[in-house]
Amino acid sequence: MLEPSSSEEEDDDIGSSFNSGFNGGSSHLEPPGGVHQNGGPPRVPSPMSVDGSMAKIGGGRGQENRGRVDGRGSPSPSLVSEKTLTEAELQEKQQKEEEERKTRIQLYVFVLRAIAYPFNAKQPNDMTKRHQKVTKEGLEKLRAKVDSFLKGETQIPCDEAFQNAVHSYNDIFLKSERVTGLVNGGGLSQHDCRDVFKHQIEKRIRTIPEIDGLSKDTVMTSWLAKYDAITKDDEQRRPGQRLPTAMLGNEVMTKEQLYDLFQQILNIKKFEHQLLYNAMQLDSMDEQAAAIRRELDARREKVAMMEKDRRLMPKFVLKDMEGLYIEEMNAAINLLKGNLESLPVQQGAAKEGKIKFGKIKPGKRRSSMLSRSQSSLSRGAPDEADDSHVAQLSKSDVVLTFQIEVVVLEVRNLKSVPPNRIIYCTMEVGNSDKLATDQVEASKPYWDTQGDFSTTHCLPVVKVKLYSENPGMLSLDDKELGKVVINPTPLSSKAPEWYKATVSKGSQDQELKIKVAVRMDKPMNMKHCGYLYAMGKTVWKKWKKRYFVLVQVSQYTFAICSYKEKKSDPSEMLQLDGYTVDYIEPAGDLEGGKFFFNTVREGDSVLFATEDEQDSHNWVMAFYRATGQAHKPAPPVTTAKTTSLNKNQGDADRARKHGMEEYIAADPIDFDHHKLFSKLQCLSLDWRLGDPFASLGWFTPGQVYVLDEFCARYGVRGCYRHLCYLSDLLDKCEKHTVIDPTLIHFSYAYCASHVHGNSVPANPLGEQFATPDKCIEESTRPDGVGTVTQEEKEKFQEIKERLRVQLEYQLTNFRFCFPFGRPEGALKSTLSLLERVLMKDISTPVPQNEVRSVIKKSLENAALVNYERLSEEARIEADLANPQEDMVGEVIIPPARKLEDLIRLADLCVDLLRQNEEFYAEAFAWFSDLLVEHSEIFWSLFAVDMDSVLSEQPPDTWDSFPLFQILNDYLRADDNLKNGKFHQHLREIFAPQVVRYVDLMESSIAQSIHKGFEKEKWEIKGNGCATSEDLFWKLDALQSFIRDLHWPDPEFGNHLNQRLKMMACDMIESCIQRTYNCFEMQLKKGILLNPTDYVLPSEICAMVNVVLDAKNQSLKLCAVDGVDVHKYHTKIDDMIEKTSANMRIQLVGKLVSVLDKTLSKLGAYDEGSMMGSFLSFANKKINVTGTGTDLGKSYVSFVRINMDTVTKRIADDLWVLNVMEKWYIDQVELLSKWLTERLDKSLHPYQCTCLAHIVKKIYTEYELQGLEEDRLQCGQYQAIEQRMATEEATCALTNAEATENGEDSDDEKRKKSVQKSKMKKEESREDGAKVQRQSSKAPPPPVREESSDTEVDSEDEKPKKQKAKAKPKPKEKEKQPPPSSQTGKDESDFDSIEDGGKIPMAAAGAVKDALATGGVDKVADIGKESVAQAGKMLTKGIGGFAGKAFGSFF
Q1: Which residues contact 135 (CB under 8 A, 6 or more apart)?
Q2: Alpha carbon 850 to chain centroid, angstroms
Q3: What is the pLDDT of residues 667-689, one digit of tens each?
Q4: Exposure of 467 by Cβ count < 10 A (0-12 exposed, 13-18 middle, 19+ buried)?
Q5: Which stretches within 172-320 are classed as H helix?
Q6: What is the 3-state secondary structure (H, E, C) of 238-268?
Q7: How wide is the angle at C-alpha 1116 spanned by C-alphas 1111 and 1118, nearest 5°?
Q8: Both ends of the chain: CA-CA distance in Å?
Q9: What does the alpha-carbon distance between residue 913 and residue 222 come to, in Å, rounded to a whole number?
Q10: C-alpha separations of 1095 from 150, 1020, 1086, 1219, 1264 in Å
């Protein structure tokens, strides 16, 4: 808004910028291809011919703007260069521009009068708030801000979920071409953008799981706050900065703001406004009220002329409406008079005695008011009425109330009192109570005390007295020093003045003066006052000077009253009804007065005169406004120089100088206000659509206020007003400016009710259009007007047809006219409006089938429009994704590329229909079946392209399955489209492909099993081997793929499911059978010479894992959601259990065979056998076979290693535990059986030590593997434990082990070694170093180093110790006596045998060394050489060297 001090040039700049603003605001929304090439529905030819004057009035600035917008194909005349015009064309153009300028200025004059003194309308304060719209530049800024946030260039903290939401909002909404079109149409507000974002995040937040302590409402609030931070405006308005007029779209405006608003609308310059404002006296309410009264009188006269000459009336649809039209015009004038009368003319409430005039009775040719008006207008009509009807005023009706302010400021020349004497002043008005000032010292006589008085005297007397305080003790009254008497009037000066005080004759204060300011306010109903000379026939019969007051009793009643001093009632008065005033020549025979004027009425006249010319002009203009006469008095031309310049006359002269006088003086009755209003409304709409708000065609409160006042004041018919409004709105809609359908609905319902003549309910459009101040009766039209002109009817029919075409166009392009459901509720209102437009009249509802047929046709066309537009978008995206160089000739697109494009198009189609459901389904709630049919048509168009592309694909390619998944996932989730036509077609197309795919996959999997197991190396991979892992993955992937297809046909889906389960069962069965065969072959491999060295191969573990994994996979692959529907899982599970049990039995049997062989080795030491005696003898001499503990340790090491192998390489812990349990039980049974067979024999020490070690260690090992106590402590184990305890006790008593090996046990060795070292230390201390020598011929044996015996922990350590123990050494003579004679005899015989210096012990040691190195042939040779010596020993039952050597095998 311009400041009051803005220059003319500034105003021009603002005006030009605003013109360009709203011209650009009507830019176009690009239509979808193939709908209407001209950008909108075709204009329907008008059935009526609009006359040239209408085109002329309507062809102002608004049409120039439309010409600039429409002129895309060919330039409009306004854009053609002036150089190309001929002189005649240029002159014609200039003439049109000048006529346009004159029309705008004249229209602005009428608008100024409507703004200056409104008495019919008020500014609405309950209109819907309009939000600021998003412009093209604003949309680019918004996109840039969001992109900046997504790139992390802002400091706004966010999480991944919020960033994803913003990213989706940016891609789907902000970057949409439909949103760009909505912005071009001026229909997108910042609130809409925020609302769309809120709608999207609500869906996202609903899918987020609940978080303790954080509600979803809190998340919503936080995300919206972050969105506001992203999109906030960088340019903030400074505090206290004045808003421009364009930013006051939602506020109630002041008069100054309204003036500025319509200056911009009508392109009026600032200096033109100032000239008009001053010349029209817009600040004078009396002048404006008088102008209204003159206008009403002129309209009444015109009505009377129409009544005489019916040709002046407009043409009506019925001849009988002419009389009704006269009544309506009179009623409208009476309504305006009533509204004018209702305005207050005085402060406070209206007096009870206020005069009211009755309204004109219909059918009466002339009323008293009409005769008064005609006589006062002096239009030459005879006065045929009397004044008997006029209510006479009484003196009490013109009593005035004045507010008087008296301020005493200072006293001067006070000499009669000492300086320290206290003085004060009193003040009074008439007989009112006295008021006193503060008391001050005489040396400082200053006050600033104000006294407020109220009086009804037009000539009051104000008395101010000065007093001094009487110092006497007995004095009662203070001394009066002087007084001042003042006679103020409302015209008196308000400035303080010095008044000479009246004092007593002998006082020293003869020059005493008091400074007093008196202000007498002018009452609201007092229009003028002053002294006049007057003389009349019935009043003021003598020529003398009197004090006159012009009093307004009501808007139409004035009286001129003369008052005397100190009187409330007028002495005489004259009611001015029917009088006219004018200047006259001076009367030479009267004394007093120089400037004369008179008031005249037929039969009466009153002569007035003043001493001052300016005073005379003021009185004449006051009378002119009061009488309401049409003729404006013109002052006589005088050659004498006036002493003062009339301000109003000066303003009028300046206006005349600039050519404004003709516009001001123009009589409103001479103009066609309907056409002027049409232009005003059109320009107002253009300005409104160009302001910063997304108004959608709704006017601002200020515009509505001024337009309402204009229509009421100048008699614009309501139907014509709304018809013009509808025409303008349709013009904007056809240019793709976004207009609220509710607004069109309101105006159309108004016009339809008027034209059809039907009664309308209190509110046809709901509470939002409620008009509580205007009661609409059932028997009348909405505006109370019963007449319908032919022009209104024809224009209504034209607009109805245009509106129907426009609505069908919008429904056909609903995605582009209302993108993302914006403006909110617009589509729903459009459907409601369509139903109203299809009605033949307002009372007869339209058949539902007719509405449905129109909507059905529109939606059918919409499917084609949407699909073509979407296909084009997909093609553009494909070209951008796969740019190709320019090629000559036809470009051949490969089938794979076409399929990719089809899948992309399918994604876009699904998104489109989801948006339809999200944003438009609610509006089509009453026609949901038509929307479903629209979707089916849309998919049928897609099916044509889909069939074409799929037919070009090579056979046995499966790249089209993603297309089926996209479409089927959407269709099966939509209850309306599920199993619909397109869905069935989709099943028919893809069912053969699915069957073919499953067939090929079955064959492929069978071949992979066959080839895989042939080449399988049985290395552990995953939960099985490579082949099994590949098999199970393929079966699971195939079933997951078929399951993810979500086949819509239940019968075919069950068939596929059953087939896949059966396939999985067969494949798993084949896998298990092949694995078990390989398992048996692997177990048949023998064990090497030393059975305790056997380690379970990893291949066997892998095979076991395959079977165990098959058991786990079978539940998923052969059952349906854990339920064995087809009994395939039961079958395969039984097979797996049998195979697993067989594997467990065979594996344990293989491991138990090692114990069997170990026990077989121990069986060689059985008591009473020849081999046992031979081995016992050999071990006594040279320890050929080692100790029993070594063999036990070897077996325990075997058990440990294989336990670790089974535990680590087999995945199923339960299966491993079962294997351990069976292995343990079988070992115990075997040991028990072996010992049971030897119940009648005692165990050899070798056997005893070995078994004792095995029995003790396996219990501990299996206990560590998790076997239960009751399983370990079985009866057989307890019997074994008791037997071994007995045998160990027996061995300990006979020292069997020491006798057999000549050595102690490992523990005893350690003890003896420690004792021997101690004894040696004692002997060395007592006797010194003594060396004992042997008496034997053999050399002394080397000292054998004793070492602590530890358990064999690994297979690598055991051979080393065995080699160390098998090393031959000479037999040392023992000092102890032999335990028996037989033993000594055998030793003597053995020692006496020598061969070439070699004793049999040495030969046996050699044999053992040969066996240790694996030389069997060498052992045989040594045996042959010693046959002779062995023969002697065999005869004695001792055994020979060969027997001892062969004992080492065991």
Answers
A1: 183
A2: 38
A3: 899 999 999 999 999 999 999 99
A4: buried
A5: 177-184, 190-207, 216-231, 255-266, 270-279, 285-308
A6: CCCCCCCHHHCCCCCCCHHHHHHHHHHHHCC
A7: 80
A8: 120
A9: 31
A10: 63, 16, 12, 16, 20
